[in-house]
Amino acid sequence: MPNIEKPKILVVNDDAASLLALTSLLDQWAEESNYEVLAVRSGHDALRQVLLHDFAVILLDVNMPGMDGFETAEAIHQRARSADIPIIFVTAFLADEIDRLKAYQRGAADFLFTPVIPQILRAKVQVFVTLATRNEELRRQAQKLSQRTTELTATNKRLTREMEERQAAERKSHAKDEFLAMLGHELRNPLSAISSAASLIGMAGAGPDTVGRAKTIIQRQSQHLSRIVDDLLDLSRAMSGKILLARQPIDVAVLVGSCLETFRATGRTGNYLLNVDLAPGWVDGDPTRLEQIASNLIDNALKYTPPGGTISISIAEVGDEMVLTVRDSGVGISPDLLPHVFDVFVQGAITIDRAQGGLGIGLALVRRLAELHGGSVSARSSGASAGSTFEIRLPRAAPVAAVATIPEADIHGGKPSVLLIEDNDDGREMMSTMLDAYGYAVSHAADGMQGVEMASSTVPDVAVVDIGLPGIDGYEVARRLRRDPATRHIKLIALTGYGLAEDQRRVLDAGFDLHLVKPVGIDQLLSALGSCVPMALARWVGAASRAAS
């Protein structure tokens, strides 16, 4: 049992003999009932004791000189801490109803009449002692419960914080996993085209024009790979503070104008309405890094704005800053993504068609480069389909300038007929040219819908289908071809940059016969086509015999 302080009983009586008689009786039972007895001879002394101790009950003589029992009781109960102490009035005469009412009004809990009968005294006192003991136990338990609640609250807060930290770490880990999968996909596309072009160059009978186109494709796709690697290295250096700026005075209007010319030269801006307002303005910065900022923002606007949309690019002087604004009428940014748009690896919802492409590090690099120049970047959007606005602010400075440029590619096509459905122009051209050189009759389509239409009209023996297609993806192409009796027999080969076991399962579930991961070597592709021929012919014969019957 916990060590609970003994309840106290206060006896107040001005008559020494009566006081001794009461305390002697109470002391007889004190050890057994576990209480203490205190005694005083006046109302004033009683008030002093009440200030010092809590009492289970007070035995208070009614008739005392100076401050009588009623006055003493009233004073005790006026104080908040002692307001609930039960008081038993001790009186020598049988109180009439008026006196009883007066006593109860002063806070009396009960009466004892002298001469006191010991058994009655003990019974009455024991009730209040037991009650005080229980109350103290409850108070201690409540105290412990409160302490335990405080501990549990602190533990809960700690666990909540740890869960939030774990969730944040899991989100970062998930974002990195998605990024690595995306990186693999982005690298496989150019690698596939390079591998095909290199194989084509080494083929006997490849003409000068074919070799020339293959070399151009290798060069262009190598440059694309180089840009991916440069972006990764630049971001790594920028995040670790290892980029050193070669500062010089730059007219940002000239620099941004030069970036725009590069995009125009590559045909990237042909399908958009461009509003350009470039007021001259100078900053102290690294031309290469500032060009990266401008190029990434313009590329971002082109990437996320459908053809026919509007892109506005302006430079203005605002106070002590030069402000570059790139505004588009594109897909916009959802409210939940907007606060994270400059975080590393964030690219919005990642879909299988990968229509936008990219690694999701461009805006993170823009922010870090702007900060290294003492500037800032911000993004605004009213939500999905509402377009977006990016704003770069750089400290204004004094005069000089900078520049840049890039190039472009084509197709043709006799064994089992092959339909190639691939949205990457270079990859499609190289694979088509290689298959043509090996005697395959090749037709091709640049997206899923066009591929389904061509399969229905030409009914090839084999269809090589890229999974990451715009419009409808490769899975849907396969499902539609399998549903149509006219195209159900076509042998389907999936071509994808995604090579996990889950990707292979999805490919087979969609109705494909084979799954090839980019980059695909010519030997691997020819082997796949070779394995398709007997099955394709068997399906064709089966379909023809069923139609005849």
From TrEMBL:
Residues 182-398 form the Histidine kinase domain. Residues 128-172 form a coiled coil. It comes from Massilia cavernae. It is found in: Cell inner membrane. This is histidine kinase. Residues 8-129, 417-533 form the Response regulatory domain. Keywords: Coiled coil, Kinase, Phosphoprotein, Transferase. It is an enzyme of class 2 (transferase). One of its GO terms (cellular component) is plasma membrane. Its main location: membrane.
